[in-house]
Amino acid sequence: MTSEPTESNDPRPVVLTCAQPSGTLTLGNYLGALRNWARLLDEAESYFGIVDLHTLTARTVPAELRRHTLSCLAQYIASGMDPARCSLFVQSHVIGHTELAWILGCLTPIGELQRMTQFKEKAQRLGFRAGGEDDELRFTHEGAPAQATVNSGLLYYPVLMAADILLYNADRVPVGEDQRQHLELTRELARRFNHRYSETFAVPEADIPAETAKIRSLQDPTRKMSKSDEDPQATLFLLDPPDRIRRKIGSAVTDSGAEILHREDKPGVSNLLEILAATTGERVAVWEDRLAGKGYAELKRTTTEAVVAVLDPVRKRYEELMADRGYLEEVLRTGAEAAQRRADRVLRKVYRKVGLYPRPRPS
Ligand code: TRP
Question: Which of 138, 148, 237, 286 has the most neighbouring CB atoms within 10 Å?
Answer without folding.
Answer: 237
